Amino acid sequence: MSVSRTVRILGVPMDMGQQRRGVDMGPSAVRYAGLQERLQRLGCTVHDCGNLDVPVVEEVTEREQVARSENERARHVETVAEVCNAIYREILACIPEEDFAIILGGDHSISMGSISAMTRRRPTGIVWVDAHGDFNIPETSPSGNVHGMPVAALIGQGAPALVNIGYEGAKVQPSQIVMIGVRDLDAPERARLAQSHISVFTMTDIDEHGIAEVTRRALDRLNFLDALHVSLDMDALDPDDAPGVGTPVRGGISYREVHLLMEILSSSGKVRSMDIVEINPILDERNQTAETAVELAASLLGKRIL
User: Fold this and answer.
1) Is 278 one of the catalytic residues?
2) Is 48 a catalytic residue?
3) Each residue of 17-57: pLDDT tens digit?
4) What tens digit of pLDDT does each residue of 240-263 get?
5) Catalytic residue flag (residue 134)
6) Catalytic entry in 76, 108, 229, 259
7) Mean pLDDT along residues 215-231
8) Per the residue annotation, which of 205, 235, 291, 295 is the catalytic one?
9) Among 76, 147, 229, 259, which one carries the catalytic annotation?
10) Does the annotation count 233 as an active-site position?
11) Which residues of 144-173 are buried (b: 16+ CB within 10 A; e: fewer)?
């Protein structure tokens, strides 16, 4: 199937939202897997905007020894916020509103920058595809890793530096978020999510009802919105299909299920942007995870079997 669409790619090689090194190489791995060429074969006009400049963790750690973080329970929070603000500015300045944006991470904290930009332009629904809830705040996080906090920040909860990325306050309401594939939550995070009014479809829901029904229910929840952003953490997939991630959790979405998920989302005609995050080439097998990510981006942009 051929589609006619302009796509712009922005890389954000940041790994400061977590403690395990390697996801900063994610943008290179996805490009090496042929993202641009694959989308061009699909009929897209593709422009690669390159990578944002991101500090290395050693430089940041040295700086933080002098100036302590505003919240010691969120590691590198100020620097993560600076990078996310740069993402926000870059998207608004360099990616036209009518173009499809693909933001390559990096860890999942980058979504605070990308989603802030998308919601600045128009009300946008968020399809959060992830094994984790990413709904911690500094006070509930057992690790202090910011990549476990972006959803909370996006609805206005947590460290002020994260909440106020791009512009002050919440970027979305809980009714604008749907999570798919969740299967690993911290206990306080589970309690917070249960009270949040965010729609959460766990792996149990997928097992019971099937990915097609779950995806259609997700779209029904977001039906009042005309634009969608898909934030794809590759650890949503089962580790057998996506081994190159920093926080793998057994029992995830299968290869075929995640393709069907992307195909149904694409058929809605509402998806305008996506994140691809948490690919760690150090842990991968022959770039398998990045290659799968390229295939999923193609499915989201209109690739079909017939």
Assistant:
1) yes
2) no
3) 666 689 999 999 999 999 999 999 999 999 999 999 998 87
4) 999 999 899 999 999 999 999 999
5) yes
6) 108
7) 98
8) 235
9) 147
10) yes
11) bbbbbbbbbbbbebbbebbbbbbeeeebbe
The answer to whether the pTM exceeds 0.85 is yes
Say which of 15, 278, 291, 295 is annotated catalytic.
278
Q: Which of 15, 78, 107, 134 is catalytic?
A: 134
| CA end-to-end span of the chain | 7
How far out from the chain centre does Cα 301 lie? 16
Query: What value does the mean pLDDT take over residues 161-170?
Result: 98
Give the other-Cβ count within 10 Å of 49's Cβ.
Answer: 16
Q: What pLDDT was estimated at residue 68?
A: 45
238 annotated active-site = no
Q: Is 275 a catalytic residue?
A: no
Q: Which domains does the chain show, CATH number per domain? A: 6-300 (3.40.800.10)
Catalytic residue among 15, 76, 132, 284: 132
Residue 70, pLDDT above cutoff 80: no
pLDDT of residue 57: 73
